[in-house]
Design a protein that fits this description.
521 residues, alpha/beta, elongated, 6-stranded antiparallel beta barrel, 16 strands, 8-stranded mixed β-sheet, 16 helices
């Protein structure tokens, strides 16, 4: 009798061992089939020439406009000129290692930047890379740098004020949320200082602030950021920096990247303030790129589409309707003039795009009238629609009377003999000018501004020497905040300045004037 564990005879069926081996072979075959790579086609170009900030390529027939191109050494470029025989690429970094003959590859990705809440309090470059040594950005969403402006039907009228904290602007040149107000002036006249005070005044107002530096000195940008940190403003701010030593391509995309970051918050229904410092340097960077790309030059060597470059940027600032989020994006573009020539090419373009301009005067700056706003040449085309009602009650005639004072002051310099009414107008105007003076980094709340402006418009400061107006103003501000909190709350909430509130303010101002008139013991 044969043993039970003897091997099967020639006609027996395969055992479990053979079945396991067959399954293992099937599994290995399936794994090898899945791991077999598919044939992928790609476009490879070759660099034919390299210039300062640009490169020209042959190949890449399917590349898209504004698509990122990978170059030698990990350098990225943006496809800009799509000519039939070559592709013009704007370099987004230092191209020292790039040379003719090196290869270029398509990435299939349009130029984009990270967006999200994680940007608040950070300093980034135009590509969204952190510059503040606080670690990488942990953001999941990215959006294209170039985006279309909201259509007209999605926009709402500008009716809510954006307080700058500066008396001369909030009272005479009000800025609304969703407005585009140009800051215009010569070098070193305080353009950036106005933007800085406006950002500082947004603390506690649930307004996200984005500061975009274009072509500025690194030391100046560092000083600006230090002031933001010193006044606890970085918590609600984002800084996008493209310094003057960056390639012109990085300076060119910086304002569009900053606007994309700001639009994220606007789409969430929040109010955003963005400052472009400044668009004159941005125009020069675009002119440099255009000339390097051999585009036809026009007036002052700028290309013919220089107007469109800034109009499509500034048109993205708006107030959205509630059904489309209800957020707002307020733009404060800065432009530099030469010898107060506001009719030059770039300033006139910016004036025609924006909703008003704040013109700064170097003469007033030299006389110590800061902020050096030229009231006669400045305008806000939104006007009183975006101004709190309490301002209209005290500053309605102040702009006209102040402009008349400035004209009369010029006339009085000729030594002409003036009548008593003209002398009174001059004395009153000098007090108003002292009231409009305001130290930097000290934005004022609405109620304090209204009280001081009421004293100036009613002529109650006429008996105060001009050099003592600042001291009297400080006393009025302190007493109004401490003794009339209900009146302050009503004014800041948007209510009209009632007769009782006006009488209470005048009574308090009269007491301050009486105390100031008393001789010192």
């Amino acid at each position: 009798m044969p043993r039970s564990d003897s091997p099967p005879g020639p006609g027996a069926s395969p055992g479990p061992l053979r079945e396991s081996a067959a399954q293992a072979l099937d599994t290995v075959g399936q794994v090898l089939e899945d791991a077999r790579g598919a044939l992928v086609t790609g476009e490879v170009g070759r660099v034919v020439s390299v210039g300062p900030g640009v490169a020209h390529l042959h190949g890449l027939p399917g590349v898209q406009a504004e698509e990122l191109v990978s170059l030698a050494g990990g350098l990225l470029g943006m496809a800009w000129n799509l000519d039939p025989d070559e592709v013009g690429v704007v370099l987004l970094g230092a191209g020292d290692e790039l040379a003719a003959g090196s290869f270029a590859h398509r990435t299939g990705r349009i130029l984009d930047v990270p967006v999200g809440e994680g940007l608040l309090g950070r300093v980034v470059d135009a590509l969204g890379n952190p510059l503040d040594e606080r670690g990488p950005l942990r953001l999941r969403e990215r959006r294209p740098v170039e985006q279309p402006a909201p259509p007209i039907l999605h926009r709402a009228p500008v009716t809510r004020p954006l307080q700058t904290g500066l008396k001369v602007i909030d009272s005479l040149l009000p800025i609304g949320r969703g407005q585009r107000e140009l800051i215009l002036g010569d070098r070193q006249t305080g353009k950036t200082a106005i933007a800085l005070d406006t950002i500082l005044n947004q603390r506690g107002r649930d307004v996200v602030c984005v500061y975009c530096s274009i072509g500025q000195r690194s030391s100046g940008v560092a000083e600006f950021l230090s002031h933001l940190r010193r006044h606890d403003a970085m918590a609600y701010s984002i800084a996008v920096v493209a310094s003057g030593d960056e390639p012109p391509g990085v300076q060119y995309i910086a304002p569009y990247a900053a606007t994309t970051m700001a639009e994220y918050f606007m789409r969430q229904g929040r109010d955003v303030l963005i400052v472009y410092d400044d668009l004159t340097r941005h125009a020069r960077a675009y002119r440099e790129l255009s000339l390097l790309m051999r585009r036809p030059p026009g007036r002052e060597a700028y290309p013919g589409d220089i107007f469109y470059v800034h109009s499509r940027l500034l048109e993205r600032a708006t107030q959205l309707r509630p059904e489309h989020g209800g957020g707002s994006l307020t733009a404060l573009p800065i432009a530099e003039t030469q010898s107060q020539n506001i009719s030059a090419y770039i300033p006139t373009n910016r004036i025609s795009i924006t909703d008003g301009q704040i013109v700064l005067s170097p003469q007033q700056f030299r006389r110590g009238v800061l902020p050096a706003v030229d009231v006669g040449r400045s305008v806000s085309r939104v006007g009183g629609k975006a101004q709190l009602p309490c301002y209209r009650a005290v500053a309605g005639e102040l702009r006209l009377s102040y402009a008349q004072f400035e004209e009369l002051e010029v006339f009085a310099r000729f030594g002409t003999r003036l009548d008593d009414a003209s002398v009174a107008t001059l004395e009153r105007g000098r007090r108003v000018r002292e009231v409009f003076k305001q130290p930097q980094y000290q934005p004022m709340r609405v109620a304090e501004q209204v009280a001081v402006l009421l004293a100036a418009s009613e002529g109650l400061l006429s008996q105060v020497p001009a050099d003592q107006v600042a001291a009297v103003e400080q006393v009025i501000r302190t007493r109004v905040s401490g003794e009339l909190p209900d009146v302050c709350q009503r004014m800041e909430s948007g209510e009209q300045l009632g007769d009782d509130d006006r009488a209470a303010l005048l009574r308090l101002i009269g007491e301050v004037m009486a105390e100031a008139a008393e001789p010192a013991p």
